[in-house]
Design a protein that fits this description.
The chain has one domain: 2-Layer Sandwich (Beta-Lactamase). Helix content is 46%, strand content 23%. It has three helices and five strands. Residues 1-24 are annotated as: Disordered.
Length: 105
């Protein structure tokens, strides 16, 4: 499930933004994160994160909405499938390399 924070400076989960303002905290305002899961959906293998949605009409930062959440969730599914496919391909490549070495001996 996505984590959508409209303003990290007002969120207690980000204490560094109010207690220790630095260059980074001044740049980050809105955050949207969602887990990347493997194809079986039982293991988190990464995270997709979007920062500071821009409002093109007035060049300011605005909050992410439900459409953004749905888009990022769909994107994370494709990322998870791509990572899983790559891992399976690499496993097959290693197995084939071992078989070739065995046949040469």
């Amino acid at each position: 499930q996505p984590l959508n924070i409209a303003d990290v400076t007002k969120d207690q989960r980000f204490p560094w933004t109010s207690e220790n303002p630095d260059h980074t905290s001044n740049q980050i305002k809105s955050v949207l994160c969602t887990p990347i899961r493997n194809g079986k959906k039982d293991k988190v293998i990464g995270v997709c994160q979007l920062v500071n949605k821009m409002d093109e009409s007035c060049c300011s930062i605005k909050a992410f909405n439900r459409n953004d959440e749905q888009f990022l969730e769909a994107f994370a599914i494709f990322c998870g499938l791509g990572i899983q496919n790559t891992q399976m391909y690499e496993t097959v490549e290693r197995a084939m390399a071992k078989q070739e070495v065995t046949l040469e001996v």
